[in-house]
Design goal:
This protein has about 240 residues and is an all-alpha fold. The protein has helices at about 1-15, 30-40, 65-95, 95-105, 115-230. Helix 2 packs across helix 3 and helix 3 runs antiparallel to helix 5 (about 115-230). The longest helix is centred in the last third of the chain and has 117 residues, at about 115-230.
């Protein structure tokens, strides 16, 4: 009978999830473990492990570093809560612990302090310590996010300035190209006008030369005719 009862107790212990056989994936079902959670103000569901991808939040910074920071903070809090629940359960289920607490809780006047009250005070102190630690972690995370936000802002400002410099450089290059094209066109137009002017001058010179040649030819012809008249014999009248 004792063996069967022992096997029954073992099976029941294995089937129920307590803080000692807690596997991080199943919710606590042992009354003592659940009672320890209640005394500490911890929900049994807060002890369940959450994978890193579950810390992606809508409207929050979902870069890898931010997700990992939320995961690390939550995981540290979860492990600390598990340790607190284990200590509270062991303290409440240990007869020696209760008797020691009872024996050592007598004051100077012989008044015995309630062990439950003493344990609650210790749990309250642990809870306050955990809350201070969480507050410190939150402040560190906020400071870190502010610093990362400032770095991101500085990076964006730097990129904006680089873009402005690039646009200004491109505009300057475009202006130089436009000015060069304008100067080239003006130079070509000047050369064309000079060529036209030279051509006009050449035509005028050619025309003047041709006219002079004609004049000289006419003068020579007239001179030749006059000489002929002078040399021809005249008829005498008898």
């Amino acid at each position: 009978i004792n063996a069967e009862y022992g096997e029954f107790v073992l099976r029941r212990w294995l089937m129920s999830v307590n803080i000692e056989n807690f596997s991080n994936t199943r919710t606590l079902s042992s009354p003592r473990s659940v009672d320890a959670c209640n005394k500490l103000g911890i929900l049994p569901s807060e002890l369940i492990y959450r994978p890193m991808e579950s810390f992606k939040e809508t409207g929050a910074n979902n870069e890898d570093w931010a997700i990992k920071m939320r995961f690390d903070r939550s995981e540290a809090k979860r492990k600390e809560s598990i340790s607190m629940v284990k200590r509270a359960r062991r303290s409440s289920s240990s007869p020696g612990g209760r008797s020691t607490a009872s024996a050592g809780s007598c004051g100077v006047g012989g008044t015995q302090e309630d062990p439950t009250s003493s344990m609650m005070k210790r749990e309250q102190m642990q809870l306050e310590k955990l809350q201070r630690k969480q507050q410190q972690e939150i402040e560190q995370m906020i400071a870190y996010e502010l610093r990362m936000s400032e770095i991101q802002k500085q990076r964006e400002e730097k990129e904006h300035k680089e873009q402005l410099r690039h646009k200004q450089h491109q505009a300057e290059l475009a202006k130089r190209k436009k000015d060069w094209e304008q100067a080239r066109k003006e130079k070509e137009e000047k050369k064309r006008l000079q060529a036209v002017e030279q051509e006009e001058v050449a035509k005028k010179l050619a025309a003047d030369a041709h006219k002079k040649e004609q004049q000289m030819a006419e003068a020579a012809r007239l001179k030749a005719v006059s000489y002929t008249h002078l040399t021809l014999p005249t008829k005498r009248i008898v």
